[in-house]
């Protein structure tokens, strides 16, 4: 017989990964950048994030 489970997580809990996972991905990314010597300039990251935000806002306004 299967044990019944309940859903006690909020939408925020589902949408946001656990802090440990976030930190682990960040450290892995840092290590990979150090290993390869390939870094992405913060100006480029910010520009891409701004583009993504603008696109998301446009989609929200339409739909």
Secondary-structure blueprint:
Blueprint: H1 11-15, H2 19-36, H3 42-62
Key features?
single chain, mainly alpha, 0% strand, 63 residues, 3 helices
Number of domains: 1
Structural class: mainly alpha
Beta-strand content estimate: under 5%
Q: Please trace the helix and strand order, writing H or E for each element.
A: HHH
Large-scale geometry: flat
Helix content: 55-70%
Would you kindly provide a brief summary of this structure?
The protein is mainly α.
Describe this structure in words.
By secondary structure, the protein is mainly alpha-helical. It has one domain (11-62). It contains 3 helices and no strands. It has helices at residues 11-15, 19-36, 42-62.
């Amino acid at each position: 017989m299967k044990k019944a489970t309940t859903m006690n997580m909020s939408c925020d809990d589902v949408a946001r990964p656990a802090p440990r996972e976030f930190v682990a991905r960040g450290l892995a990314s840092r290590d990979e950048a150090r290993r390869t010597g390939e870094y992405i300039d913060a100006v480029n990251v910010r520009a891409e994030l701004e583009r993504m935000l603008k696109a998301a806002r446009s989609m929200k306004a339409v739909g």
